[in-house]
TrEMBL record:
Protein's name in the database: Mechanosensitive ion channel protein MscS
Membrane topology of the entry: Multi-pass membrane protein
Organism of this sequence: Methanococcoides methylutens
GO molecular function terms noted in the UniProt entry: mechanosensitive monoatomic ion channel activity
Membrane-traversing stretches: 18-39, 66-89, 95-116, 137-156, 162-182
Source organism phylogeny: Archaea, Methanobacteriati, Methanobacteriota, Stenosarchaea group, Methanomicrobia
GO CC entries: plasma membrane
Pfam families reported for this sequence: MS_channel_2nd, MS_channel_3rd
Length: 353
């Protein structure tokens, strides 16, 4: 009994606690050094022989945080021994835990940067649009913010015992106000997302927007889409307009395109002859496809002409105007040779005597 009292009084002294705390700190530094040595001499040596760079980057990113974690945990344990749970020194324990949490918050942000700088770019290069390339910096920034906010929230809630719900609620109100002020930019952003995921067109497609804008898609961005019209003008259209309007894609699902040419001939013309001449003209043009076959329809008895429609197909939409030009040129010459008249507009005026 006497010996137990002596041991209790000895081990319960502040000197013993300080010595034990110092020993723990020394031991934690030694362990941290050994862990750092393992990373440098073993893990980095192993990853340097692989053909991937990302494993080296990950090892470098977590090497120092693990080193600091071992030391901070040793300091936390040493401080607990010296001060005890009920001591005023509890605040230093919370400070140590906060520092430890901040170390790993920044480590996660570093790992996030490795992903966005070394993994995701190689994936988005396989796509045809540039919208995902433009989204990467934005998504990286958003993910960094989420990591930071979640980490800080956990520190305030778990370490310091603060209720973070009102804080995040206030931040939500501020976010709503900012979103309302930037609603046009947000609308264009989500329009870009809908274009990216829905893929109604791609670069090089010939499209027409509901407002009449017609051209070739040059670039799909996160806020706008650029199309080159037939006058070689670059038209920049906000993605919100494209997302909320009808879009005609002349290139998809197949690039071939139907061309309809309307021609009127004089009353009294031989209908069969007109059809034959028009078909011969269409079949003699190299850019006109053999299948589907060209066809001619007798569409209408007009006010001063018999109206025919020549239907033919071209392989690419860009060939449409060249074919129309060639067809109209040949119609003018062949109709003249065949004696088929193209009438002028004529009106008969009846006058009472």
């Amino acid at each position: 009994m006497y010996a137990q009292q002596i041991l209790g009084s000895l081990f319960g002294t502040i000197e013993y606690k300080l010595a034990l705390a110092a020993s723990i700190m020394v031991l934690s530094v030694i362990v941290a050094y050994l862990v750092d040595l393992v990373f440098k001499k073993v893990l980095l040596h192993f990853t340097s022989k692989t053909r991937f760079e990302i494993d080296d980057l990950v090892i470098h990113a977590v090497k120092r945080p693990i080193y600091y974690t071992v030391i901070l945990m040793g300091a936390f344990l040493a401080l607990s021994i010296v001060g005890g749970a009920e001591s005023y020194l509890w605040i230093f324990n919370d400070i140590l835990l906060t520092i430890l949490a901040l170390v790993w918050i920044f480590t996660l942000i570093s790992l996030n940067k490795i992903l966005f700088d070394n993994v995701f770019p190689s994936l988005v290069k396989k796509t045809e649009t540039k919208i995902d390339d433009e989204m990467l910096p934005l998504l990286k920034g958003l993910s960094d913010i989420v990591i930071g906010l979640v980490g800080i929230g956990l520190i305030l809630e778990s370490v310091w015992g603060l209720n973070v719900v009102p804080l995040f609620a206030s931040a939500g109100i501020v976010g709503i106000a900012i979103a309302f002020a930037a609603k046009d930019a947000i609308s264009q952003f989500f329009g870009g997302l809908s274009i990216y995921y829905d893929k109604p067109f791609k670069n090089g497609d010939r499209i027409e927007i509901a407002d009449g804008q017609l051209g070739i898609v040059e670039e799909v961005g996160i806020r706008s889409t650029r199309i080159l019209d037939f006058y070689n003008n670059m038209i920049i259209i906000p993605n919100s307009i494209i997302a909320n309007n009808k879009v005609i894609n002349y290139t998809s699902p197949q690039p071939k395109m139907m061309v309809k040419i309307t021609i009127g001939v004089a009353y009294g013309s031989d209908v069969a002859k007109v059809k034959r001449v028009l078909l011969d003209i269409a079949k003699g043009i190299d850019l006109v496809l053999d299948y589907p076959e060209p066809s001619v329809r007798f569409d209408n008895h007009g006010d001063f002409s018999l109206d025919f429609a020549l239907i033919l197909w071209v392989k690419y939409p860009s060939e449409k105007f060249s074919v129309i030009n060639e067809v109209n040129t040949l119609i003018d010459s062949e109709f003249g040779k065949e004696g088929i008249d193209i009438p002028f507009p004529t009106y008969t005026i009846l006058k009472d005597q």
